[in-house]
Specification:
Oligomer: heterodimer
CATH superfamily of chain B: Carbon-nitrogen hydrolase
Order of helices and strands of chain B: EHEHEEEEEEEHEHHEEEEEHHH
Distance between the termini of chain B: 41 Å
CATH class of the largest domain in chain A: Alpha Beta
Helix content of chain B: 25-40%
Distance between the termini of chain A: 71 Å
CATH class of chain B: Alpha Beta
CATH topology of the largest domain in chain A: Alpha-Beta Plaits
Number of helices of chain B: 8
GO molecular function (chain B): N-carbamoylputrescine amidase activity
Radius of gyration of chain A: 37 Å
EC number (chain B): 3.5.1.53
Structural class of chain B: alpha/beta
Keywords (chain B): Hydrolase
Protein name (chain B): N-carbamoylputrescine amidase
Organism (chain B): Streptomyces griseomycini
CATH architecture of the largest domain in chain A: 2-Layer Sandwich
Number of strands of chain A: 16
Strand order of the largest sheet of chain B: 5-4-3-2-1-15
Largest sheet of chain A: 5 strands, mixed
Shape of chain A: rod-shaped
Number of strands of chain B: 15
Strand content of chain B: 25-35%
Number of domains of chain B: 1
Shape of chain B: globular
Strand order of the largest sheet of chain A: 2-7-6-5-4
Chain lengths: ~525, ~280
């Protein structure tokens, strides 16, 4: 015998009674009308007084009551035994045994909350069992095949190395509603589904997620994510419109797949990182107005109400290190390494906090940690409007790009801002301009046609130090006469006089443009 | 008093020695102050390992006088320098052989306000505390600090609703619950009991748990420190379950009034009927 699984797809008592073949028997619900949504697992025809012991729950029992007629105690006990066996409903065919609904049975059924249905017209029970049974089997088969299909698709995606987003998209395609994955703190790690619907769900996520903690009546179906005795998240189908059992099945398959994905992903970037990365990428790219990303930012754990935002870009430290320092300092922010190898940070501070001082504190803590590479922390001015954040993020990235290559030679402040990068910033912006490129080639042709890294490097230092010969000699560990010889060689090859300010400036700009293109 | 208290808790792993542990906490206090925190509470027995995983008299040496010992003095100076209220859960020696699990409370001007001594002392596997501590005898003090009225309820205490209530009756606005608790043992309680206490007593609770596995046993301390408001909502996210973390949160005390206007638990409690609770 199969065990009774409440989650298996089933027809409800109400649905059975509404079947066309059943309607022919003129069913009337005479008791337990409030329980008609109970699932019917099976239909059982039984003319036995002790039918209760044969049941395992969820059955709709059909009887003519021929063994019960005339004995009210027996009738009452019969109903009670069905109730104890958790039968779904009792259907009594009126006829010789009971010409009308028996009062005792009706009263007891009402008291137990067991739906009691009488059929006013003679009705071949076999038709009903056949009809219901075949529907149930079809449904079960459909559920099993859906379950297998979903599992197959998700497993194929996982083995093909698909990212989390692809899995979620697939789940959303099946469920037709927004799908949200969160950690235990209700922080959203991933979403899928139609954008407007997802945004609606995320708008007030924290509150909604906590309130919807209880029942699944509103179509919220959740499955826990975890393994090896540890829970670490959950997946939620938000407002699933199909029947609950199918939704349950989808959620369970999705949860299995996500657990597998995470276990196989192992050392790869965590979902938290992926979610931060996709948020910051979308912010920086500007393809979606920042305002529309607010729900996602909030759901990803970034406080956004009445906050000051500080856009930062960092070179020389990995994203997870930055994340650690943020946590260590108790600062709220999202961190991700974006395309191009620059790590981007968006800090969210309370309005009364000193953004400049905290940014400096953050930079100092970053520098004091282990790590050999020089750290460059670039910041854009703080913003109070979220709409201004993308421009700030781009500005910070621009600043870090402009100085990252030559951070050691330049005397940079702890937090570099647009004002500190001067000409380098401008050249960086213009580096892809063909006119600038041909200008740089023309000006430096004498050195570039036969590349001499030593001469280029001396020239770079000489110009960066403001044509300070003793400093340049010192930095290159050469004597002054040796430096003079190199400078003469440079001047000869370029055909310029570096003592002439305008010619030197022109070579300097060309060299900056050349370096910017090399990055 | 400002209606918003910027409060902080700090969770960290055992570094291996007392001095570096103290330095980590000094830095945390500086970080918290840099963010404008008004008050910061450390984890239980903050400058030591959680030695109660074993029963070894060698660890009695971690106990210090409160407030006359060097650690309290050191942090009094730091509190004065940074202008921050500090709650220091530590091992206290009242006199040789008389030891308590204590928290000292230092006001933002560096003055020592008093101490709370842990009342309920556990004795279960991995938490052999009766070996180290006498049950506290401090009653239920609430300290009127520059950051608001603060109570402390240490670790195992939190399983007993009576102390939470006593702190509420004494006017606490925030109760800190510094702890050292292990994954398998209390995971299912950690986000249940303190929020329930916050609701029942209508104040904020700051819960702190250390992180990591230490050399004295298998206890896997799971951090997850957090603040919870009088409606049982976490204020921001709970901290990491593995990493050192400073949690700084704004606690809006207007919420406390709002909730107490809605639910008059303090008015409707019936102390006259509670006699059996205190019968020995």
């Amino acid at each position: 015998m199969t065990t009774w699984e409440p989650s298996a797809p089933a027809l409800s008592v109400r649905q059975v009674l509404a079947l066309e073949r059943v309607l022919a028997g003129e069913p009337e619900v005479v008791a337990g009308a409030r329980r008609l949504d109970r699932p019917v697992r099976w239909v059982h025809v039984a003319e036995a007084a002790d039918v209760g012991v044969m049941l395992s729950g969820g059955e709709m029992v059909l009887t003519t009551g021929v063994l019960l007629a005339g004995d009210e105690d027996k009738q009452a006990e019969y109903v009670r035994s069905l109730h104890r066996a958790e039968a779904a409903a009792l259907v009594l065919g009126l006829g010789r045994a009971f010409p009308s609904p028996p009062d005792v049975m009706r009263r007891v059924a009402e008291r137990c909350g067991l739906p009691l249905v009488v059929l006013h017209r003679p009705f071949p029970f076999a038709q009903l069992t056949e009809e219901v049974q075949s529907r149930l089997v079809r449904r079960k088969f459909a559920a099993v095949s859906l379950s297998e299909a979903v599992r197959g698709e998700l497993t194929a995606l996982i083995t093909a190395g698909a990212p989390l987003q692809r899995l979620l998209d697939e789940v959303a395609r099946h469920s037709g509603c927004p799908v949200v994955v969160t950690n235990l703190a209700h922080r959203v790690l991933g979403t899928a589904g139609e954008r407007p619907a997802v945004d609606d769900v995320l708008r007030d996520w924290e509150r909604v997620a906590r309130q919807a903690g209880g029942g699944e009546g509103d179509g919220w179906i959740r499955a826990e994510l975890g393994g090896r005795g540890e829970r670490w998240g959950r997946i939620v189908l938000c407002g699933y419109r199909g029947d609950r059992a199918t939704g349950r099945l989808l959620a369970d398959r999705a949860a299995e797949a996500l657990v597998l994905h995470r276990m196989l992903g192992g050392a790869a970037r965590s979902w938290e990182e992926q979610s931060a990365q996709s948020l910051l990428t979308d912010l920086v790219s500007g393809v979606v107005p920042a305002r529309q990303l607010l729900p996602r930012a909030r759901a990803a754990g970034l406080p956004v109400n009445r906050r000051t935002f500080v856009p930062l870009a960092v070179h020389g430290r990995e994203a997870h290190r930055l994340d650690r320092v943020l946590r260590l300092l108790g600062l709220s922010g999202v961190v991700a390494e974006l395309a191009g190898g620059v790590t981007t940070v968006l800090l969210s501070l309370a309005r009364d906090q000193d953004a400049e001082a905290l940014t400096a504190h953050f930079a100092a803590r970053l520098r004091s940690g282990p790590g050999a590479a020089p750290v460059v922390v670039a910041a854009a001015d703080e913003r109070t409007a979220f709409d201004d954040v993308p421009a700030g993020l781009r500005e910070a990235r621009h600043v870090v790009d402009a100085v990252a290559g030559s951070a050691a030679a330049l005397d940079l402040p702890a937090v570099v801002r647009l004002g500190d990068v001067h000409l380098r910033g401008l050249i960086r912006l213009l580096r892809d301009d063909p006119q600038v490129q041909s200008f740089a080639e023309r000006e430096l042709d004498g050195l570039l046609c036969e590349p001499d890294e030593d001469l280029l490097s001396v020239l770079r230092t000489y110009l960066a130090t403001g044509r300070n010969k003793s400093r340049t000699a010192q930095l290159h560990h050469v004597s002054r006469p040796a430096l003079y010889r190199r400078l003469e060689a440079i001047q000869a090859r370029l055909g310029v006089d570096l003592d002439d300010f305008e010619q030197a400036a022109s070579v300097h700009i060309a060299l900056l443009a050349h370096d910017a293109q090399q990055q | 008093m400002s209606p918003v208290i910027r409060a902080a808790v700090f969770q960290t792993a055992w570094t291996g020695d007392k001095e570096s542990m103290i330095q980590v906490h000094e830095q945390a206090a500086r970080d918290a102050a840099a963010q404008g925190a008004h008050v910061l509470c450390f984890q239980e027995l903050f400058y030591g390992p959680y030695f109660c995983q074993v029963q070894d008299p060698a660890f009695y040496a971690y106990a210090e006088r409160v407030p006359d010992g060097p650690v309290v003095k050191r942090f009094q100076a730091l509190a004065r320098e940074l202008g921050i209220v500090l709650v220091l859960p530590m091992y206290e020696e009242e006199q040789p052989g008389v030891l308590y699990n204590t928290a000292a409370v230092i006001d933002a001007d560096g003055s020592y306000l008093g101490k709370y001594r842990k009342t309920h002392i556990p004795q279960v596997k991995g938490f052999w505390e009766k070996f180290y501590f006498r049950p506290g005898n401090s009653g239920w003090p609430v300290f009127d600090t520059r950051a608001g009225r603060i109570g402390v309820y240490i670790c195992y205490d939190r399983h007993f609703p009576e102390g939470w209530r006593a702190l509420g009756l004494a006017g606490a606005e925030i109760v800190f619950n510094p702890s050292a608790t292990s994954r398998g043992l209390s995971g299912y309680l950690w986000q249940l009991e303190q929020p329930a206490a916050a609701v029942a007593n209508e104040y904020f609770v700051g819960a702190i748990n250390r992180v990591g596995v230490e050399e004295y046993g298998d206890n896997d301390f799971y951090g997850t420190s957090y603040f919870v408001d009088p409606e049982a909502r976490f204020v921001g996210e709970p901290a990491s379950d593995k990493e050192t973390e400073l949690v700084v949160r704004d606690l809006d005390t207007a919420k406390l009034r709002e909730v107490r206007d809605r639910w008059q638990f303090y008015r409707d409690r019936a102390p006259g009927a509670y006699g059996p609770l205190t019968a020995p």
